[in-house]
Task: inverse folding
């Protein structure tokens, strides 16, 4: 049985969680956009937030995933416009994951995740997602939450 943290990160919060989860035995697998977002700006937040609202799928670099049904998988996504980020939409479209055991870790800047929780439930995933608000700014809180994840 292998443990994977498959995630996207544009500004480092997901990468920080990946480091913590690595200590807990989760192999990090980073989803990369073909056209990376680059430096964040107000325009980009509006643009990519709009794409997330329409559940668009960003083009992602090829991923070699060999996940077995018994593997433990955590999928990590920042929150974009209260929804999953568009590279994670692509991941969920291209690969199939065990709907009963796969867990989501969401990392918004605030606390709002209502629409993304609905989105995940609608996709059929049954585990309640873990929400870690702004991990890079609240590192101790993030560490405590991750510590409880096996
Ligand atoms: C396009 C875009 C839209 C965002 N929309 C939201 C939002 O609706 N709610 C929120 O709490 N944070 C929002 N954020 C902030 C990110 O979810 C947050 O900073 C996250 O921790 C970034 O993770 P990363 O550093 O791994 O990319 C948005 C960021 C981007 C780039």
Result:
């Amino acid at each position: 049985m292998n443990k994977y943290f498959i995630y996207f990160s544009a500004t480092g919060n997901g990468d920080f969680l990946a480091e913590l989860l690595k200590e807990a035995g989760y192999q990090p697998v980073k989803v990369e956009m073909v056209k990376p977002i680059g430096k964040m700006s107000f325009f980009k937040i509006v643009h990519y937030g709009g794409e997330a609202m329409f559940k668009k799928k960003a083009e992602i670099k090829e991923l070699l995933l060999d996940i077995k049904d018994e593997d433990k998988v955590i999928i990590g996504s920042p929150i974009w416009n209260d929804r999953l980020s568009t590279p994670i939409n692509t991941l969920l479209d291209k690969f199939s994951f065990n709907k009963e055991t796969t867990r989501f870790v969401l990392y918004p800047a605030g606390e709002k995740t209502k629409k993304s929780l609905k989105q995940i439930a609608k996709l059929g995933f049954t585990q309640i997602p873990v929400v870690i608000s702004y991990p890079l700014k609240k590192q101790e809180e993030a560490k405590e939450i991750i510590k409880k994840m096996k």
In short: The chain has a mean pLDDT of 96. The chain has one domain: 3-147. The chain has five helices and six strands. The domain at 3-147 is CATH 3.40.50.360 (Rossmann fold).
